[in-house]
Write a structure and sequence with these properties.
alpha/beta; seven-stranded mixed beta sheet; six-stranded parallel beta sheet
């Protein structure tokens, strides 16, 4: 028996749990409040994608006469092949049946329906994939074929990472969702409710809390809540998470509270603590929480207690979750999306909110962006070590809005100081503080990828967006990451208010050059969406936008609008995405931009060598006095040499610096060589960081002309072998 049952309703990701309930459970542990948490999404997927369930689905579809399309007819005809292989494929994608890869890669093992038609176009991509990855990709296509059968014949609302998403997206009124909730449960609903019923019987909670991060979780959350209200009327129900935080701030429809008792906004720790007390004591104060009073929706924010600091919220707790049951899939069209869906990642944040907090398309008026609070590097690494011990996984995805460079640097140094081996990636801004040396440091600490918003590659629009970067700066920073062997993904935007067709074409040309030079490896175009809590949404008249204002009683986030320029940006969508797909795979750079579009577009005004020119910067021979100097290399081997010339004899040292792939040798005067050996020992991450000024001072105790020594060819060579200026 537990006080709270925390649930992530279907569906989010197949490969790793969404972290919200793990954050809340970790916090509740610090308050000695007993809880259990569950990812119903992965549990439903596993209940659905197995031989016994699919036998029922095939029979149901046949009896209901819903097998109509050529694709579903083919899948049904091959049903015995699907039933024979399904359980084995799921085990393989869970990492429990690796030897199946050889069978999966064989031509005649998996039944193939419409999803496999893309193999003819992508066969060339397999040359860069190992057998396990190719097998995962083929197994992913196989599951997508079965998913198509479910959508066509059983439940049109099904999707691997969402369920009935349309009902939650831009739902200004509760009417449509309410109507669906009063219909008979679907087959997917029945699976979900059966699992939920078992959990309620085992946990016997007093309070069930649904974390709803996305529109694709909303319907299932309400369907589950309705089941609890009917079958366990004494159990109270709360809802929070990303969807309520962004969409339900204007809630007035009392019918919502036929399903839930509390809806809390923003940081969940203090609100859920107070809701728990409210339930246990049958009353009390609340924080940022909607309830129903006298049949009216009332927003309660009666507590004067401040929210908890990040240092006090505890460490995520992944216990209870079925960590060995998640499924790794591979979609090779986009390297970053592949990273997102392949492998199980522990999720953390380096900081609450965004340190920049100015982008005009972003919800910067909301607390989850507006309130910036970093976590100390040593505490962050403590949490990393705790999660490694708990989960057995050393992969981390930092889900920050934009991880701050200074904290990334401190985190990387702390990882190296403790001699930990982890793999991690995060979201960033392409800002100038990501120098070449910082990127090398991040790589040394285990960073494998970063994603950041280039948005519209136009200087005018970047200023209007208030991105705080230039295209030239983005090019230099992405080059720095790429040279450090860190993959770079860029979020790209089209259709920003007042954007012209010329700017769209010029932005594509910038992107083409970035990919052609190899300094961006992954990207994704998305059309600008006007949100209610962004500067554009709050002040549309300042951005040439005419919003379609509607009456709001339920969700309020995405807003329909007209751009005063009158440009229909949707007609460029296919061409932008098709060209990007090809650029990501290293082809199509020579094609005229017009050829990607089925509508006429103007020629680009961007010089064909614009990005190349941006990268031609002079090497600086100056270093800030406050810059930190770090040595990541190994202790060199030493060979003493005696040189003689014209009767003079002097001693030298030959220092051999061994990296993992090569050896770099320098020879210098023995006294200076001994000084260098001594100072390198002081510059390791395990020691107190020294500034350039401090290193210079130590040198000048014994020698003169430090700059001549520091910028000499042998020492400059060390900068490619582990000596960093940060």
């Amino acid at each position: 028996m537990k006080d709270l049952l925390l649930i992530t309703p279907p569906f989010t990701q197949l490969n790793t749990p969404y972290p919200a309930t793990a954050y809340i459970k970790g916090f509740l542990n610090t308050k000695n409040i007993s809880s259990f948490h569950s990812d119903l999404g992965i549990e439903v997927i596993l209940s659905l994608f197995n031989k016994n369930t699919f036998q029922k689905l095939f029979d149901m579809a046949f009896e209901a006469n819903t097998i109509v399309s050529e694709n579903s007819l083919r899948i049904y005809a091959l049903r015995q092949d699907y039933l024979k292989t399904l359980d084995a494929v799921i085990l393989f994608l869970q990492g429990k049946n690796d030897t199946l890869a050889r069978q999966l890669c064989a031509d005649n093992f998996l039944p193939q329906a419409s999803r496999f038609k893309q193999l003819d176009d992508l066969e060339w991509a397999f040359g860069n994939m190992g057998m396990q990855d190719k097998a995962k990709y083929l197994a992913t296509l196989y599951l997508e074929d079965l998913s198509d059968f479910i959508v066509e014949c059983i439940d049109p609302n099904f999707g691997f990472s969402r369920y009935a998403e349309r009902l939650g997206r831009s739902a200004n009124s509760f009417d449509e969702l309410y109507g669906h909730l009063n219909e008979e449960p679907t087959f997917i609903d029945e699976l979900t409710l059966e699992l939920l019923s078992d959990q309620l019987a085992n946990i016997q909670p007093k309070l069930v809390c649904f974390s709803v991060p996305f529109p694709g979780n909303l319907y299932s959350a309400f369907r589950c809540a309705k089941f609890i209200k009917k079958n366990h009327p004494s159990v109270k129900i709360a809802m929070g998470g990303g969807f309520p935080n962004t969409e339900l701030r204007s809630l007035t429809d009392a019918r919502v509270f036929e399903f839930v008792d509390f809806i809390s906004l923003d940081d969940g720790e203090l609100p859920i603590e107070l809701v728990h007390k409210y339930v246990m004591n049958e009353g009390g104060e609340l924080k940022r929480t909607f309830i129903l009073e006298d049949n009216k929706v009332v927003y309660k924010n009666t507590s004067s207690r401040p929210d908890y600091k990040q240092q006090d919220v505890g460490t995520l707790d992944y216990s209870d979750l079925l960590l060995d049951a998640y499924i790794s899939v591979i979609e090779i069209a986009n390297p970053m999306h592949s990273l997102w869906s392949d492998g199980r990642w522990n999720k953390l944040t380096m900081a609450h909110g965004c340190y920049w907090g100015k982008c005009t398309f972003c919800d910067i008026s909301l607390d989850y962006i507006k309130i910036y609070e970093p976590v100390a590097a040593n505490l962050l690494v403590d949490r990393v070590e705790t999660l490694i011990a708990q989960t057995g996984e050393s992969g981390f995805h930092f889900v920050d809005e934009a991880a701050p460079p200074s904290l990334m640097k401190a985190f990387a140094l702390e990882i190296l100081k403790r001699n930990l081996t982890i793999t991690w990636w995060t979201n960033i801004r392409f800002e100038k503080n990501f120098t070449q040396d910082l990127c090398y440091l991040l790589k040394a600490s285990g960073c494998i990828a970063v994603s950041g918003g280039l948005e519209v590659a136009s200087e005018r629009l970047l200023k209007l967006i208030d991105k705080g970067v230039t295209v030239e700066q983005v090019a230099q920073v992405t080059r720095n990451f790429t040279e450090a062997s860190i993959m770079v993904h860029s979020y790209l935007m089209y259709g920003y208010p007042t954007q012209t067709v010329q700017e769209t074409v010029d932005s594509l040309e910038m992107v083409r050059q970035l990919f052609e030079l190899g300094i961006i490896q992954s990207g994704f175009w998305h059309q600008f969406a006007l949100t209610a809590h962004s500067p554009v949404g709050l002040h549309p008249e300042e951005y040439g936008v005419v919003p379609d204002v509607k009456s709001i009683s339920f969700a309020n986030n995405d807003i329909d609008f007209k751009d005063k320029t009158g440009v229909d940006h949707s007609k460029f969508s296919f061409g932008l995405k098709k060209s990007l797909f090809n650029f990501m795979h290293g082809i199509g750079f020579e094609m005229p931009l017009q050829d990607w579009f089925d509508v006429n577009v103007p020629k680009t005004k961007i010089a064909s060598d614009y990005i190349f020119t941006c990268l031609q910067e002079e090497v600086s021979l100056s270093t800030k006095a406050t810059a930190k100097i770090v040595w990541l290399g190994a202790t060199p081997t030493i060979k003493e040499l005696v040189k003689s010339k014209k009767g003079r004899t002097w001693e030298q040292l030959e220092l051999s610096f061994h990296t993992k792939t090569e050896v770099y040798k320098i020879t210098m005067d023995k006294a200076k060589g001994c000084w260098l050996l001594n100072i390198l020992d002081k510059l390791t991450p395990q020691q107190q960081a020294m500034s350039f000024k401090q290193v210079k001072s130590e040198y000048e105790i014994l020698f003169e002309d430090f700059e001549l020594f520091w910028f000499s060819k042998p020492i400059r060579g060390l900068f490619k072998h582990g000596l960093l200026v940060l």
